[in-house]
UniProtKB/TrEMBL annotation:
Gene: minC
Gene3D superfamilies registered for this protein in UniProt: 2.160.20.70, 3.30.70.260
Keywords assigned by UniProt, alphabetized: Cell cycle, Cell division, Septation
Boundaries of every Septum formation inhibitor MinC C-terminal domain copy: 115-211
Annotated protein name in UniProt: Probable septum site-determining protein MinC
Species per Swiss-Prot/TrEMBL record: Vibrio albus
Length: 225
């Protein structure tokens, strides 16, 4: 006996692109640069457009097509101030979304810690589902380590580390030597060019904090131990 489709609520980690003006060429140039630096992370990734600080109309159809051409998938708009703007977004095929603040919860059934003893080579991907990941060696450029929980790296991180992959905001990344292409916690990410010199090639702990507007931001702490 076949079952009927069942529509349920759920939550997913999405990238949010914060716009500060309606200059589409500037926005697309920024995205193109980001995707070029980490294509495996951004290609086909869903993105929400936050237009809270934009004054004036946005050509949503042109912006949507430009983002698709770059390789990301625009799924919706948040921060619209009026119905007219919402209607323009809807006409372009974008969903109207509202940010919801909810407490982060760890998975009900955590798996044992996944421990990797060997180097993680370029092109490899290691994933610890519903648990933490410990790497006792180096991570090469072009390699990717992912965990639903925290990630502990005892060697050099030259590739990408993605913790809290299922949205766990309490996840941490602890790295003995930070030279990463990309670091991410619960969908909040920094590329190598955003990492300050004071943390480069240092032992560092990354976590999520809140800025003045109560947005989630990556926080870096040097570990002198």
């Amino acid at each position: 006996m076949s079952q009927s489709p069942d529509l349920k609520g759920s939550s997913f980690t999405l990238s949010v692109l914060h716009l500060f003006n309606n200059d589409i060429s500037e926005t697309l140039a920024y995205l193109d640069e980001k995707v070029a630096k980490a294509p495996s992370f951004f290609t086909s990734a869903p993105v929400v457009l936050n237009i809270t600080k934009v004054e004036g109309d946005i050509d949503f159809t042109k912006l949507k097509q430009g983002i698709l051409n770059i390789g990301m998938i625009p799924v919706g708009v948040t921060g619209s101030k009026d119905k007219r703007t919402q209607n323009l977004a809807k006409e372009a095929g974008l969903a109207i979304m509202s940010a919801a603040k909810s407490p982060s919860q760890a998975p009900a059934d955590m798996e044992p810690v996944k421990v990797i003893h060997t180097p993680v080579r370029s092109g490899q991907q290691i994933y610890a589902k519903n648990g933490d990941l410990v790497i006792l060696n180096h991570i090469s450029a072009g390699a990717e380590v992912i965990a639903d929980g925290s990630i502990h790296i005892h060697g050099t991180l030259r590739g990408r580390a993605i913790a809290g992959a299922s949205g766990q905001k309490a996840a941490k990344i602890i790295c003995n030597d930070l030279q990463a292409e990309l670091v991410s916690i619960a969908g909040n990410y920094w590329l190598s060019d955003q990492i300050k010199d004071e943390f480069w090639q240092k032992k560092v702990m990354l976590s999520l904090a809140s800025d003045e507007e109560q947005n989630d931001v990556l926080s870096f702490q040097a570990l002198n131990i």
